[in-house]
């Protein structure tokens, strides 16, 4: 692993959908002086190489099977980005599909849950004994996935849920993979509810009524945890949850058009 040092404030955001940047990662970066650089390789946009010109990279969730690089060649470019970030110790965050891509790159398996269940709603995750300050107590988070990954060799297991053992891992110092969706606001999830009605009734999923109750009960804690995590991840120590996260709740009844982020 090479030593990495960068004075850049540019952060690559790799999207797997055509949607406005209205998630918590983008909001955090703009608020704290970073320059989000959005790339959509699935739409033909070129994904630059990871080097000292970027301060980090985030690979988001989506609906593309991570193994199908021949069918979806852009996944090869994203896999190359993962390798470069790991080689140079560039901060790398994978969310849902992005986490599965990281796991696959590191030699782990990625496949549907053996029982066929999925998580769509808000579910509690718990820290592992090795979680450290990543997660110090159980947290209820947004989920939308049916696939899971095994723990890569050399990775540190950070979190689990009752149905899916591997919810988060760290690899090296600066690479984190999250199966869950802490970047999702109430507004984002409301759109998923409308765009993903076929999920309801499948094994493991929650009803819309259950989701509604849980999102209002737990979204504030999820936001607070995630902003704190991002502050440490991007080495902006001392950052607390910004006051403007309350807008997630205050604007919950107003739908912002957002493309569906299909099942990871």
Structural features:
264 residues; alpha/beta; Rossmann fold; 9-stranded mixed beta sheet; two-stranded antiparallel sheet; 6 helices; 11 strands; 27% helix
Task: Give a structural overview.
With 264 residues, the chain is an alpha/beta fold. It has a single domain (10-250), classed as Rossmann fold, CATH 3.40.50.880. 27% of the residues lie in helices and 20% in strands. The chain has helices spanning 24-31, 74-88, 97-105, 186-195, 208-233, 247-250; strands at residues 10-14, 35-39, 56-59, 92-95, 110-112, 119-127, 139-145, 147-149, 156-161, 168-171, 175-178. The strands form two sheets. The protein has a nine-stranded mixed sheet with strand order 2-1-3-4-11-10-9-6-7, sandwiched between helices. Strand 3, helix 2 (74-88) and strand 4 form a beta-alpha-beta unit.
């Amino acid at each position: 692993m090479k030593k990495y040092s960068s004075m850049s404030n540019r952060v690559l955001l790799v999207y797997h959908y055509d949607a406005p940047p209205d998630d918590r990662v983008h909001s955090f970066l703009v608020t704290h002086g970073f320059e989000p650089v959005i790339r959509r390789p699935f739409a033909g946009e070129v994904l630059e190489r990871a080097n000292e010109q970027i301060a980090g990279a985030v690979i988001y969730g989506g609906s593309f099977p991570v193994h199908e690089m021949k069918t979806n060649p852009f996944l090869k470019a994203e896999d190359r980005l993962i390798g470069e970030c790991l080689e140079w110790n560039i901060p790398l965050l994978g969310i849902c599909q992005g986490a599965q891509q990281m796991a696959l790159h590191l030699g782990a398996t990625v496949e549907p849950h053996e029982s066929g269940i999925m998580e769509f709603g808000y579910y509690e995750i718990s820290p592992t004994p090795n979680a450290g300050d990543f997660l110090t107590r159980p947290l209820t988070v947004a989920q939308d996935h049916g696939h899971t990954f095994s723990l890569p060799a050399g990775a540190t297991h950070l979190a689990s849920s009752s149905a899916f053992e591997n919810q988060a891992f760290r690899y090296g110092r600066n690479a984190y993979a999250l199966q869950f969706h802490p970047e999702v606001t109430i507004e984002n999830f409301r759109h998923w509810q409308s765009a993903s009605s076929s999920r309801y009734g499948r094994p493991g999923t929650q009803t819309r009524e259950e989701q509604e109750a849980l999102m209002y009960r737990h979204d504030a804690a999820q936001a607070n945890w995630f902003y704190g995590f991002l502050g440490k991840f991007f080495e902006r120590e001392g950052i607390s949850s910004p006051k403007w996260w309350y807008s997630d709740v205050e604007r919950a009844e107003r739908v912002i058009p957002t493309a569906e982020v299909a099942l990871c």
